[in-house]
TrEMBL record:
Annotated source species: Chryseobacterium soldanellicola
Name of the molecule in the record: TM2 domain-containing protein
One GO CC annotation: membrane
InterPro entries, per the entry: TM2
Primary localisation category: membrane
Domain TM2: 23-74
Length: 96
């Protein structure tokens, strides 16, 4: 019988029906919503340049730009875990 490139581990993962879980989605969302003015969600995801830009924007606009990480945090929550990881962890999309 041919296995068509599937390994025993692949078959076990399919049989266990374990849903995909992102390790960074919830912490990044909470950081964006609660302390977005510090750009901690950007730094947490490894976006140092974007984090510094966010802090500068917050200073220049007297905090008005902190709406950006707040909106990002909400967007993170409504994404699937797989979509979040594909977009922000692996895809390295720095903004919205």
């Amino acid at each position: 019988m041919e296995n068509y490139g599937y390994t025993k581990t692949d078959n076990q993962n399919q049989q266990n029906n374990v849903p995909y879980r992102s390790e960074k989605k919830i912490p990044a969302a909470l950081l964006g919503i609660l302390v977005g003015w510090l750009a901690l969600n950007k730094f947490y995801l490894g976006y140092t340049k974007e984090g510094i830009i966010q802090i500068i924007l917050n200073i220049v606009t007297l905090g008005v730009a902190s709406i950006i990480p707040f909106i990002e945090g909400i967007l993170y929550l409504f994404m699937s875990d797989k979509q979040f990881d594909d977009t922000y962890v692996y895809g390295k999309k720095g903004w919205l």
